[in-house]
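Residues determine shape. We examine one folded chain.
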Amino acid sequence: MNPRAVLDGLIIRLKKNVDFLNELDRLVGDGDHGTTLERIAQNLSLKKEEVENYPTLFFKLANSFSSSGGGAASALFSYCFMRVYKLAKKWENSTIFTVERLKEITGEFADSIQRVGRAKVGDKTMLDIWYLFFQWLNSVNSVLLADLPLFKKLANNKLKNLLEDQKSLVAGAGRASYIGERTKGKMDPGSASSRMIIQSFLDAVE
């Protein structure tokens, strides 16, 4: 899939879920996670014509998150996308997106979040989504990968289940950890937006 089409899909997802993400964020933060991502989406809309390949897309994403003024989550997304940009510069054909490249991206995100955020899997942060989905991708066999529609369906179901399963946890890191038990049964806003980002790249796999 053309990287501009991937960006279009991400912009649509972020704009569509502004109220949903704000509501999730009200429990643990300022209630503006969705508004921040909407502002990022609007900024990205102005840069679509500058996106020529996947490295360029990741660079634009890193810059847009960095300039959003959205606090810790935006800064972390920016750092991760910049790391992915450096990784993608090495791709021989930077306009093609495969399952292997999806693995590279999710693995880099998981590693970067652990390095900077110092969270652990199970702390109810976005790391749960990126790391556990990366693990799932690495467990997928070649037979399933040969059937891309089925693979994408199962991958989307996995993302949905990861987010649902995470709700039963108590936040052990980040701002949400200050309210502890009150986070049980609630969805983490950064994890919810992470799912949207992954879904947009999942759409691109060919």
Observations:
- The chain has a mean pLDDT of 91.
- The chain has one domain: 3-202.
- The CA atoms of residues 97 and 205 lie 5 Å apart.
- The first helix runs from residue 3 to 16.
